[in-house]
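ok so dumb question maybe but i'm new to this and my supervisor (M.) told me to 'just get the structure for Xanthine dehydrogenase' and walked off. so i did the thing. is this what she meant?? sequence i used:
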Amino acid sequence: RALVMSLFFKAYLAISRRLCDAGILTPDAVPSSERSGADSFHTPVLRSAQLFERVSSEQPTHDPIGKPKVHASALKQATGEAIYTDDIPRMDGELYLGFVLSTQPRAKIIKLDASEALALPGVHGFFSAQDLTAHENEVGPVFHDEHVFAAGEVHCIGQVIGTIAADNQTLAQRAARMVRVEYEAVQPVVVTIEEAIEHKSYFPNYPIYINKGNVTQAMAEAELSYEGSCRMGGQEHFYLETHAALAVPRDSDELELFCSTQHPSEVQKLVAHVISIPSHRIVCRAKRLGGGFGDKESRGISVALPAALAAYRLRRPVRCMLDRDEDMLITGTRHPFLFKYKLGFTREGLITACDIECYNNAGWSMDLSFSVLERAMCHFENCYRIPNVRVGGWVCKTNLPSNTAFRGFGGPQGMFAGEHIIRDVARIVGRDVLDVMRLNFYKTGDYTHYNQQLEHFPIERCLKDCLKQSSFEQKRADVACFNRENRWRKRGLAVVPTKFGVAFGVMHLNQAGALINVYADGSVLLSHGGVEIGQGLNTKMIQCAARALDIPIELIHISETATDKVPNTSPTAASVGSDLNGMAVLAACEKLNKRLAPIKEHCPKGTWQEWINKAYFDRVSLSATGFYAMPNIGYHPETNPNARTYNYFTNGVGISLVEIDCLTGDHQVLSMDIVMDIGSSINPAIDIGQIEGAF
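this is what came out, is it supposed to look like this??
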């Protein structure tokens, strides 16, 4: 109703303005401050500039590190020639998998009848929990608290109950719709965090706490105090390529999987578990992904496991690529969070104490929610030093598809709370938020509430550079002037600093492997444990190998990520892909360099091809593996107090100017300035692309 009134008023203003311009109404009939209410947004002419550090040209000609090299498959992707999972040509006898999904948020399955679907010509099988033992049916990335197929009960809409294997996609989906499922509703159905709190619907062993200092005493001594809360909703991943898998049986008990996943080793391990054969008989391959953003770290199993089971049982290739609506129904989102906090601070705005409760909405299974919560708890203070802290965390169990990893993995949600806190304090003490930020910033050498020392903390520099680059003071004056002169359109200017810890929260994942094969013609095939999701990881790995071997990047190729080349890989996630895999690539290159050293000494003026040819005839091994384990990581207050939680931190500051239409709620970002400190960039073009893409 309010919107209808607003639109009517907008039309009234627009018509009045035209009548004024035509001289029918007097010029003052519509006050000048109201006239802009008639406008609507148009896409402005886009202008942008990217600034980065240039590497010196004194480096050897082959060294590509630090140079803005083009993404290795950019041209193929731009022209549509790049091959993704579902672009693999159809195989002889191939079947397509259709999904039978739950239509109830929480219910017992009374009856499951696929006879009508199986009677259709071209339908070759129906698979459900009946086709697996209870043990085989239990899966999950860390805790096996999920099911390949719903076992007697469904916990959310979109849960997989069964699958149909048929000759083609249309038939498989039609047959899946013919499978009859009868339910008996179960109460209560819990959807929101508030409902979970009301019903005490938490996963076991929660809450957990992180403590620093004495919060109770600091609160009692604080000059001012405040209680507040903030919340952040979910977000759909919306990668361009939905979840996809192609399972191909080889020989009598081997299986090859082409899968759109950030974690091929996880898919391999769980497929082995479900079909009860060892991992060495299963190969999982991922050439490239059309985006993942975290959802393909653990949720790829929803498609890969049913496809693998059908292929293994029917001895035929089985393919599935989810439609967009299926993908959004089956998979979870970013974790919604609710924060409740109590603050103690001085009249100047210096925060002395914070007692905060963090609740995340995990959905129906644990997935990686425990780790997302821990990262949010470690990032809630963002860039601000708070001497006395108590952080409590709850993982809420609800009847939604299991929420999962999503760019930042709890970090953005935590920092969101920190930025609310700093603004609350600034508002209450009546000071400029920038002054309160500066007053509370960590300094180099300070310790976080999880006892990690900040060895280098350049947030002041980032802020100073960003304020200057964005002409902040001028913009602020312009905004104040604009808001005075326009009643129905308002502008706002936001400054947000960030601190993001780089490392996997689970210690054993901070490892990587690589394999380098050099062929007799001098060409190099590189394999590593990371997956190319479009983020340019392969390009960076080629650059690392080119520098380490001192050869042109044109000689190096990465074909795919496969579990038979590099085993036991970690997921490509947590912003550590190039750190971990790059070090593994360097370790492999160092082995090769040692073997080639005597040949280079003997023939110092030779070319790379001549050295390789000589090594081959001298029977020197031209294949090497590399491995890297991140050192001094895995902090635990009792068992490992001297280690760090994160390997290092990246910092940045963003300043955005936004205009809103108060009548309709329509809005537009007018300008954005970002300054990121990411150390010495391996490839500035790719890093800038990642920063802009993330924004």
